[in-house]
Design a protein that fits this description.
Layout (H helix, E strand, L loop, with lengths): L1 E2 L8 E2 L6 H15 L4 H4 L6 E8 L2 E9 L3 H18 L4 E7 L24 H12 L5 E8 L5 E8 L3 H4 L3 H12 L2 E7 L1
Parallel strand pairs: 4-5, 7-8
Antiparallel strand pairs: 1-2, 3-4, 6-7
């Protein structure tokens, strides 16, 4: 059972109490819903968690986890919503990610009682690719290359479309740090025509 109140935009499972970041984001969203041009679009939307990720000593990003069914609604207003939230959260970069679940690979001795096949969207690879898409959302990923170095380490080169360079160029180090923290994979971004 989930806990949700009308004085909060946060929906957490069980009786978990919100942390400071979640409280601040919830209050900022309520303020925007009360008095901005986004009020009609924000009505009925909520988020399921938020966390701060340190990029550098002087830079912090706020990652807001949203429910997957509301992702398309958030995408419609994401540009304006990110700008407004960055103003309210004192210049921290704001990133919206859908909450996704990874199911383990079924084995002969797994305790999975259902005999259903695991959907492709719940595999580790699919979830990591979807996180990367959510991370750079206003920009489109046009290509990816995986570079394997001699010591066995891997680095993913992601090609973004050139038209979104103005909006996303300042956030590339944020994207790299957040993706590394969430997935453990190294990634670098390039703009390609």
């Amino acid at each position: 059972m989930a806990l949700y109140s009308h004085s909060s935009k946060l929906l957490k499972p069980g009786n978990e109490s919100p942390n400071d970041v979640e409280t601040a984001v919830s209050q900022a969203l309520l303020d925007l819903e009360a008095n901005s041009d986004l009020s009609s679009a924000l009505r009925g939307l909520y988020f399921v968690g938020a966390e701060e990720i340190v990029i550098r000593d002087d830079k912090v990003a706020v990652v807001i986890h949203i429910p997957f069914p509301q992702q398309k609604i958030y995408h419609k207003i994401q540009g304006r919503l990110v700008r407004e939230l960055e103003k309210k959260l004192s210049g921290k970069h704001v990133i919206f990610l859908s909450k996704r679940r990874i199911l383990s690979k079924p084995t002969r001795h797994s305790r999975n009682l259902s005999k259903q096949k695991r959907p492709r969207s719940r595999t580790l690879t699919a979830v990591h690719a979807a996180i990367l898409d959510d991370l750079v959302y206003p920009a489109e990923i046009t290509g990816q290359r995986k570079r394997v170095k001699l010591d066995g380490s891997q680095q993913i080169k992601v090609h973004l479309e050139k038209s979104c360079q103005i909006n996303t160029e300042t956030k590339l180090d944020t994207f790299m740090s957040v993706y590394k923290k969430l997935t453990g994979k190294d990634v670098c971004f390039e703009y390609v025509d």
